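Here's my example:
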Amino acid sequence: MSDAHSLSSKLVPMPRTQETRDQICTLIDTTEVFSDLQWPQIRILATYLDAYQAPAGTVVFREGDPGNFACFILEGRVDIYREDAHHERKTVISLGAGKFLGETSAFDEDARSATAVVAKATILLILTREHFLRISNEEPALAINLLIKWARTLSQRLRRAGGMLIEHLHD
């Protein structure tokens, strides 16, 4: 992966063997978020993804880091947090299997808006900005499908944040 230098050194790359690729395809096929993909699309998508294992405590990315990849959680859990004005860690959300993270910075090229830390041993699929652009050129229908999924995810998170803001304003 061309952006590997920005990944935590504690993320362990899974071998790029056919067996691993088949396991990744099977895991993708069992997740709800990709339930509308046909097997041939899953196999194509898997060729653009890099799989990593991460033990609990691994920092996937930090607030302020450049955003050049998005992650999909196949197994495990990742906590997203920000630090408040007193440098206290505030958990924004805890994400489990089948969820995306880091997609905003990966595509708007801004710095990461929060820190992501593995809470439970995790398998992450990484999609770099470069690989997404390749999908856009080589497999446009798949790229549109991914964009729709990310738009839904962002919409849900925006609604959740709006609800939290309203609750906070009423306290």
